[in-house]
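Notes from hallway chat w/ T.B., transcribed later so I don't forget. T.B. wanted the structure written out for a chain they're using in a teaching module, and asked if we could keep both sequence and structure tokens in one place. Agreed to drop them here.
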Amino acid sequence: MNLAWLSVGALFAAIILSCFTQINPGVISIVFAWIIGVYLGGMTVKQVAAGFPVELFLTLAGVTLLFAQAQVNGTLSRIAEHLIRLCRGNAGILPVMFFLLAASLATIGPGNIATAALLAPAAMAAARRSNIPAFLMAIMVGNGANSGSLSPFAPTGIIVNGLFDRMGLHGYEWHNWWNNFAAHAFVAFAGYVLFGGWKLFRRGTRSDHHATEPFTRNQWITIGVITALVLSVVIGRANIGMAAFACALLLAACKATDEGEAIRKMPWNTLLMVCGVTVLIGILEKTQGIQLFASLIARVSTPANVTAVVAFITGLVSVYSSTSGVVLPAFLPAIPPLLERLGGGDAFAIASAMNVGGHLVDVSPLSTIGALCLAGVLDPAESRTLFYKLMAWGLSMCLIVAVFSYIFFR
């Protein structure tokens, strides 16, 4: 029991340190796993290292490499430019277009963070140029990016589906995506109406849209290769990680992109964070820490309110910490023992509450996506105001997602 408490304490320490320091929580987690496993638990280093998720690492590396290549050769930004041009300067349509564009891009593979990094600067610049409130645009593009994050092609979706497989929950890939998309679409368009988005249609259209460059040979090749990846996974049931490596190799062989630059642009920080935290989760499993963690949640839950409770807790922690790298890898494995202590329940409903709870708060300025939107505001006074608005929005989502989960995930 002492080791269980130590391992749970180490997990909470890693989460807290990730909130208030710049140290990668993956590094913290690996060190804690080594100390607890080897020096306190009598394990060998090999047993501790066995918790490293090799298959997950390969899958994430393959997918992120392919979409880093698409980013380096300008394919993703060119797609965005062509779709934005369809709005033809209509102020009311622009925020809606950015939501749909962000949702689509995040779904096909880059994921929420890469999509926000690509679109947030353009979205905030478009808002400034068209006199659209910065807060309204941040809500739309931020929730749009998060709405596609649980796609089976996106990094976070890959992480979550891997955790689902370990719990014996199979075949929920697109159900996961839909639940997350529906929640984000609901809050985004509620915010759009609440904060005056519909009034923007009264302005009509502007004629200052610029001509868009056509796709180059390399960009068409990249679009074709990404399409082939999607079809091979959806129709051919190919392993997404291995197929992504094959597609990345094809792009490199065709000299359609700068492979070296793409490798440098891969989110190595995120890969280390996810895999490092997973190593510590492995120690929790070996020391009965997962069961202890579940019992702590069970103390404040009942079968009737458990989805609301876990949604609120994951949301509150995600305001300050990484959803995909820390929160979901820590909370999702606790579902089976939590159900045991509650005397039954719906594992998928609880998992959905955790997934949506962790993501719905991520337009907070303390999250990467919210920070990217904030960085697109040039005026210091407006930036400060936007910070407070996004912070209030992110914290309010903890309550909203608790109510949402109580109603829909039962």
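Follow-up for T.B.: The mean pLDDT is 88. Might be a good example for the class.
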